[in-house]
Amino acid sequence: MIEFLPPRDDAFGPADADDFVGFDGDDAGFDDEPPRSRWLTLLAGLAVVGLLAVGVIAAAPWAGDEAATAPSTTEPAPTTTVDRRPASITVPTEPTLPSDVPTEPAGWIPVDGSRWAPNYVFSFGEEADAFAWNGFRSGAVLYTSRDEVGRTSGRWIAVVPSQPGMDTAQLRAGGVETTAGDRRVVVSSAPDGVVRVEVAPWTTAATSPRGPAVTITAFGIDLAAMLSVAATVELDWDSTGVGARVADVTASLGPGGPLDGLEPVPVDDLAINPWAEHLGTSLSWTDVVDTRGGQWAGVRLYRPDPVGAVVQRLLLVRPVPADELTLDVERRVDELARRGLRVELGVLESNGFTIVDVPLADGTRLAVTGPHDLVDLLDLVVDLRPATDDEWIELVTASVNGGLQPDMSSMPDVRQTTIGGGGQWSADVTGSWLSIGGPDGGTWEAFTHGQGPQLVEYRTFGVAYLRATTTFPNEARRIVVTQEATEPQEAKLVEIPGTGVLAAVVELDASLPYTVRWSDADELPVEGPIDAAASTASAASTASAASTASLP
Predict the structure, then answer these.
(1) How far apart are alpha carbons 316 and 275 in whole angstroms?
(2) What is the dihedral of CA 495, 496, 497, 501, to 10 degrees?
(3) Strand ranges (DSSP E) for 76-182?
(4) CA-CA distance, 176 to 208, in Å (whole number)?
(5) Helices 374-382 and 327-338 sit at what angle, rounded to 10 degrees?
(6) pLDDT given for residue 5 in this prediction
(7) 347-372 in b/e burial notation, b at 16+ Cβ within 10 A?
């Protein structure tokens, strides 16, 4: 029998209830520690069970069982020496940080109690090169008129060669494939009227689908002038040795040329990547997740580049649509202004993500981006604070050793609805986003739609898809797409849960016209558009005409 006696104050001194091995009463509380992964809890539980099992086996209480059978011999039993020393236990070492991983400057993180949690963080180092992190030195050129130029004011044109090896093209909603000289081009327009002409890396005689060799983006420039530039632009390898190309449009700049009156903007040393959310020197990155909604966002601390800011304003970011500037958005913008933060709102031209750009007092900026509405991102900005150096080092260390593993137990399931597919391509709606993807082109964009039956074409070089949507209470439930010399394609309109929208996507032969027949669940005809080409073919020229009309 073992009796436990209370500690003797005269022998050991007074003991506090907090004084256990490894802890003392001055230890900080545990409430500020990040939640541990359920995997870590499981592994710890297994370790405890293992240690208990070792102790039970070593003690072997059944060896002294009084009911055991006595030995049948009178000879003394051999003496057995039992080693009672504890077995060696491997203590896991603390995560270490490789010496070549930068930990400064420190970035920004959500405050305690925020619904947002850091998922991965890293620093670029004080001497981070914008070229190394933000894109490739593309040899892009930019020309603007002498007057005040904005994204949808004045005149400007940018020619950006694609990065070598980027063979997958982006599908353009409402895109029209045509020719410029002997080159194949796809013409499309952004929602605000800025026009794109993407030039194939091969002539009309070639057939292999690839991404564009160069993308020409402009406002206030006639579409015919843009096609003239597309037909004559020269490409060459960049002498910097990084594999980029240089676009030469000097032939179009002379008197009477399509770009007459424009002046060059010095972007020779600027790394331009149309997928970047800003241009400048990256300092730190914080990847965060919404533990209640499950979506992610990025918080990038960067030092802006003056010329890059011009490129960003004209080429990379478009204004937020007026219908998204709701009263809730205005309230949050005003709240941030009272805290001394003036925010700039926009939409990334590359993928439709929202961006909140925040100038800071020290001359740096925060670019907060993600597939959220403005209210969510502004709430995230409110919850951000600069991390201390010690906090940041701890977060970076955890990130490079497997991630921070925020508690996502309350995250709702994000539903994915397949609305088309076949062979190597598929089309899905996930949450509020539409994806169409195949080996020769794809898109990821906000899933927007109107009322009643609608058709939207998505095109790139030699590749085309048709998206059909309708809304309740319209009775359309099926479509049949017919093209010459091909079997008719029948597609069921699939309901997107919780939206009142039904949708389907079919792959088209890009070289053939088509017609669409709509029907209800009983296959009876329903009225709806039969061809989206008539409306989309004029979209780019209409946008170009509208932008040209804004000339002073």
Answers:
(1) 8
(2) -80
(3) 108-110, 116-123, 141-144, 156-161, 169-170, 172-173, 176-180
(4) 18
(5) 20
(6) 45
(7) bbbbbbbbbbbbeeeeebbbbbbbbb
Residues 476-504 as b or e (16 or more Cβ within 10 Å = b)? bbbbebbeeeeeebebebbebeeeebbbb
pTM, two decimal places: 0.73
Domains of the chain: 106-130+275-399 (no CATH), 136-263 (no CATH), 424-530 (2.60.40)
Give the mean model confidence (pLDDT) for residues 129-152. 70
Instruction: Provide the b/e sequence for 416-439 (b: ≥16 CB within 10 Å).
Output: ebebbbeeebbbbbeeebbebbbe
Closest among 60, 40, 55 to 89, alpha carbons compared: 55
What are the residues facing 235 on neighbouring strands?
247
Asked if 528 and 500 count as a contact pair (C-beta separation under 8 A), the reply is: no
CA neighbor of 283 nearest in space, from 355, 360, 366 = 366
The pLDDT tens digits of the residues spanning 45-83 come to: 333 333 323 333 233 333 344 444 444 444 555 555 545
273 closest CA partner among 351, 343, 172, 200 = 351
Are the beta carbons of 162 and 202 closer than 8 angstroms? Answer: no
3-state helix, strand, coil in the chain (%, to 5): 20, 30, 50
Q: How far apart are CA 180 and CA 187, in angstroms?
A: 10
**86: preceding bond cis by omega (within 30 degrees):** no
Q: 380, exposed or middle or buried, with CB in 10 Å at 0-12, 13-18, 19+?
A: buried
pLDDT band at 307; cut points 50, 70, 90: confident
Per-residue pLDDT of 194-224, as tens digits, reads: 999 999 877 777 666 677 888 899 999 999 9
DSSP 305-368: -HHHHHHIIIIIEEPPPGGG--HHHHHHHHHHHHTT---EEEEETTT--EEEEEE-TTS-EEEE
331 contact partners, CB below 8 Å, separation of at least 6 = none
What is the C-alpha separation between 142 and 309, in angstroms, rounded?
13
Q: Distance (Å, rounded) from C-alpha 445 to C-alpha 405?
A: 28
How many whole angstroms separate alpha carbon 173 and alpha carbon 288?
30
Beta strands 169-170 and 441-446 are: parallel
Cα–Cα nearest to 375, from 403, 356, 396: 356
Tokens of 8: 């003797």
Q: What are phi and psi of 318, to 5 degrees?
A: -105, 160
